[in-house]
Amino acid sequence: MKMSYSDIEICAMKALRKFMSFPISAKDVKPVPIGVFAASQLRLQVEYMRLSDDGNTLGITTYSDTKIDLHRYCRMDSIKVPGNMILIDERLRKPSMWGECDKEICRRQFTIAHECAHHIIFGMMTEKEQNKIINRRSARAYSLRELKHEDEWFEWQANALAAALIMPAQHIKLLFGDRKLTLYGNKLSKSDTLFLKWNCNKLKVSQKAMTFRLKQLGHIIEMPREAFFEPSDIVCDDDYFYSKTSGGEPCG
């Protein structure tokens, strides 16, 4: 099953409307409680456990009762997992005493959303398509490793839908309005970077995920890296302007 960006937006909107009401102002925008969404709307059970020794496997989801082989604790380990379960690596579990860093929160949010997206897409398939998926692979893993060629389309769709679930278009519209960020290669100006970070904190998502979403929604203007210019990197000293990035040589 292949969906366009437009299809994905409609899918996310339908799913979220059944779950939550949308804010009417930017100050009311809050992170989507994706864990609650998984349990209440999709009837998915979220469990935390060690999924790998290297920490690259962040999440695994199952469509039917199955056995999963994991390389953990320095050995191969087989576990039985019931259908409709989301396994999240224990490193992303919220600590009970010491708090957590933004990176952990953002990874957990997106990982759960990614696995939810797989189940939503699976539910939209025909029975024939579902059986094909189950027969080929009854569980899917979300990893930091590069995607396999056979999985690229499935993972792209899941990533796009995950982004739409935890960064709804309505939220982005309220937070960004008509503002567009200019991306020079992979670099933003200082003002755009601060604005991006502030909004990432509002939604508890990573800058990488937010940038991906902003590109989807047309809030990113892409320019070549060599076109980058940061006015705050220019300082005035007597009768000359010196560039901080040019080694202090006069540039005017």
Description of the molecule:
The structure is a single chain. By secondary structure, the chain is an alpha/beta fold. The protein has a domain at 5-169. It is 40% helix and 20% strand. It is built from 8 helices and 10 strands. The protein has a 4-stranded mixed sheet. The chain is globular, with a radius of gyration of 21 Å. The model is unreliable at 145-150 and 234-252 (pLDDT under 50).
Gyration radius (Cα, Å) is: 21 Å
Count of individual helical segments: 8
Give the structural class. Answer: alpha/beta
Strand order of the largest sheet: 1-5-2-6
What portion of residues belong to β-strands? Answer: 15-25%
Binned, the helix content reads 25-40%
- Mean pLDDT, to the nearest integer, reads 83
Overall geometric form: globular
Query: What are the segments in which pLDDT stays under 50 over at least 5 consecutive residues?
Result: 145-150, 234-252
Could you tell me the number of beta strands? 10
How do the SSEs run, as a string of H and E?
HHEEEEEHHEHHEHHEEE
Biggest β-sheet strands, sense, barrel: 4 strands, mixed
Question: Can you summarize this structure?
Answer:
This protein has helices at 5-17, 34-41, 102-123, 127-136, 152-166, 169-176, 190-203, 207-216, and strands spanning 45-49, 57-62, 66-72, 75-81, 85-89, 139-143, 181-184, 220-223, 234-237, 240-243.
Task: Reconstruct the topology from this structure.
Layout: H1 5-17, H2 34-41, E1 45-49, E2 57-62, E3 66-72, E4 75-81, E5 85-89, H3 102-123, H4 127-136, E6 139-143, H5 152-166, H6 169-176, E7 181-184, H7 190-203, H8 207-216, E8 220-223, E9 234-237, E10 240-243
Helix pairs in contact: 1-5, 3-5
